[in-house]
Design brief:
The chain is mostly beta strands. Helices cover 4% and strands 37% of the residues. The longest helix has 14 residues.
Length: 679
């Protein structure tokens, strides 16, 4: 029997001599490892169970590397028994350090050579301690709760005001280099590691409050956290060789929660430097800052999570070995009321690879602000600096930036409802459409200084396009490196919409462009009940770069063309067609200043004064009751009882007494006349 074992046995016998009642909690002070082990052996053996049993350690270092204990208990009601080898086993006991400074009292494990975790606790608490150099092939290198559980459930083991450092865990589909299966308060977990092969987080299967998790490394997912619930925590400077530098939740069966946390300066060698959540995992991120994280290829900030009222900012998705990078800020996530800003895909050399979605990639978002995100030079394609393949609702996408030739600076793919697209731009005179090839409809959106290119099946409805042309991002705005690129003369934008555009109930006003529409395919451009007014054209309304035969290129039905001018604003061209352009006009209102001949024209109303309601602060292009456009439109198949005008509200139906007005507004102003009264 070793000297330590003899002393522990003697110390345990001394406890037997204590006169304690069955209900009284034990409190004892110890100052050596032997006394600590003896006290634990005695308390663990008691039939009377109470977490109030307390061992108070004196200041100093406790090297427990030669201690070997086993947690082996049969749980009442289940009959299950699990043996967990550890340096110190705790059963209904609290160990407290000498002072409130946890570094004054250190429990030191044996490291890799001993292959044991430092502490395994059952219905137990550690407080005011530093726990270091545990090394286990199982879970929880520093402190492991005896009961395996999941975050958000009843945690039986407590870690409070502790530092857990330089510990390691290796359990496949487990982990917790520092702690596992515990409830932790105000603690610090740093310098811990987990093994490769699905072993997650310095903390795993834990509930954490006010903790600081930093400088940890995972050989798989979750450098800082595995599946955890974390409240008011800081997760910083952690690294994963797999997914999720800050937090990695690797299975759809796992749970997660970040509330009021800061996730900063974490890195993943694969996806999501900040937070990686496997699709289908239950949980959310709320009121959390996710900033300055980096990943290779897919995502710098957040992947796969549901995020509420959070800020995802300054994250980086560096190109991977294939020279691709997607979703610097957000990838495959669901966002509500979030700010996604100043995320970026950095420059790289060469012309291969794709850079998509600096802000948001392949996600769903509602009520969000997406701004200041950037894609820098390099690669074959640079698209969607704001959002890419994302379903956006009631969101603002503005001042996103792309270097060089690109398409879809603001949005590429996806769909939009009730959104504002404003001042997204590249650093070249013309860089393609700001909103490019949405895969779903674009409805009730506002486009300021933006253009759109659509595919045939997509409808652009109840949208306003205004203020386009002559705008550049101010030098030095958003990202400092833009400054040298963004000083220049006014560009003239080639077009507002292009390709397979189908516009309905849209207002196109106060733009400057070569032409409104750029057509690539015959018979693919359709404008229904749109108003084109107060624009400046360098060329014509429509430009067709394909065939010039007699097949229809475009069709305009129930549209208003008025008060449009040439580039200088001195010569009025209400409607202008270039030679060889084919368009069919039906029931349109056009001013007398027009040129070019459409392939066919019927039901035209000619008038220079549309009689807009220009005194209105909100709807200056609404027509008055005296307008020549009243009731002169063609009733179309989509004009059901539920259909609305440009305003998109049920109180403004598209039809009035079965009649349709020309233009994007249906007149619902009160008629001007006499007020009659009877006695």
């Amino acid at each position: 029997m070793s000297r330590t074992t003899v002393r522990a046995w003697v110390f345990g016998m001394a406890f037997c001599a204590l006169a304690v009642t069955a209900s009284a909690a034990i409190e004892t002070n110890v100052s050596t490892v032997a006394e600590l082990v003896g006290a634990l052996n005695y308390i663990n053996s008691l039939s009377s169970k109470s977490r109030d049993n307390t061992i108070k350690l004196a200041r100093g270092n406790y090297d427990v590397s030669e201690c070997a204990m086993t947690c082996s208990y049969s749980d009442n009601g289940t009959g299950s028994q699990l043996d967990k080898n550890t340096h110190l086993a705790m059963n209904y006991v609290t160990i407290v350090g000498a002072t409130e400074n946890p570094r004054d009292t250190v429990i030191y494990g044996g490291g890799e050579a001993k292959s044991r975790g430092v502490i395994c606790g059952r219905f137990s608490t550690v407080r005011d301690l530093t726990i270091s150099n545990g090394w286990t092939s199982a879970n929880g290198g520093g402190y492991c709760g005896y009961h395996s559980t999941s975050p958000g459930s009843m945690m039986r083991e407590i870690v409070s005001n502790c530092v857990v450092t330089c510990c390691h865990a290796g359990q496949s589909w487990g982990g917790g280099g520092a702690v596992s299966d515990v409830l932790a308060y105000d603690s610090e977990f740093c310098g811990n590691t987990t093994a490769a092969g699905n072993c997650f987080g310095a903390a795993n299967r834990c509930d954490l409050y006010g903790c600081f998790i930093h400088s940890n490394t995972s050989g798989s997912a979750g450098g800082g956290l595995g599946q955890c619930y974390a409240y008011d925590c800081v997760i910083s400077n952690n690294t994963s060789t797999g997914n999720g530098g800050g937090m990695g939740v690797a299975s759809s069966t796992y749970k997660y929660l970040l509330s009021g946390c800061t996730v900063v300066d974490n890195h993943a060698s694969a996806t999501a430097g900040g937070v990686y959540i496997a699709p289908g995992a239950a949980g959310m991120i709320t009121n959390t800052l996710i900033i300055s994280n980096s990943g290779f290829g897919n995502c710098g900030g957040v992947y796969g999570a549901r995020c509420y009222k959070s800020v995802i900012s300054n994250n980086c998705a560096a190109v991977n070995g294939s020279k691709n990078a997607y979703g610097a800020g957000v990838h495959t996530a669901t966002l509500f009321d979030c700010d996604v800003c100043f995320n970026y895909i950095p420059e790289h050399s060469g012309s291969t690879g794709n850079k998509y979605g600096a802000g948001v990639y392949s996600s769903v978002m509602t009520g969000c602000n997406v701004f200041g995100n950037a894609i820098f030079d390099g690669g074959a394609n640079r698209q969607g600096a704001g959002i890419y393949s994302t379903v956006a609702t009631n969101s603002v996408i503005y001042e996103n930036y792309c270097v060089g030739q690109s398409g879809g600076v603001a949005m590429n793919g996806g769909s939009a409802y009730g959104c504002i697209f404003s001042n997204n731009q590249a650093n070249v005179t013309w860089s393609g459409n700001q909103v490019r090839q949405p895969s779903g409809d674009v409805v009730n959106c506002d486009f300021y200084c933006q253009s759109i290119e659509c595919v045939a099946s997509v409808l652009v409805e109840n949208c306003r396009f205004w203020g386009y042309g002559g705008w550049r991002i101010p030098a030095g705005h958003n990202i400092a490196s833009m400054e040298a690129d963004l000083v220049g003369a006014d560009p003239v934008t080639p077009y507002i919409c292009s390709a397979n555009t189908h516009m309905r109930n849209c207002l196109v006003v106060s733009n400057k462009a070569n032409y409104i529409c750029k057509a690539y395919e015959k018979g693919k451009q359709l404008f229904e009940n749109c108003t084109f007014a107060d624009n400046r054209f360098e060329g014509s309304f429509i430009n067709f770069s394909g065939d010039s035969d007699t097949v229809n290129v475009a069709e305009a039905v129930n549209c208003i063309f008025t008060r449009n001018y040439d580039k200088t604003g001195t010569t009025r061209y209400d409607f202008k067609l270039s030679s060889g352009t084919n368009i069919r006009l039906s029931n349109c209102l056009i001013g007398t200043s027009r040129s070019g001949t459409p392939i066919s024209e019927s039901g035209t109303v000619t008038a220079n004064d549309v009689k807009f309601n220009e005194g209105s602060a909100t709807d200056p292009y609404e027509i008055r009751r005296t307008s020549p456009a009243i009731g002169k439109g063609q009733v179309l198949a989509w004009m059901t009882a539920e259909a609305t005008d440009f305003r998109g509200k049920s109180e403004y139906p598209r039809l009035r007494d079965g009649a349709c007005d020309i233009g994007c507004y249906q007149c619902w102003l009160d008629p001007v006349g006499f007020i009659m009264s009877f006695r």
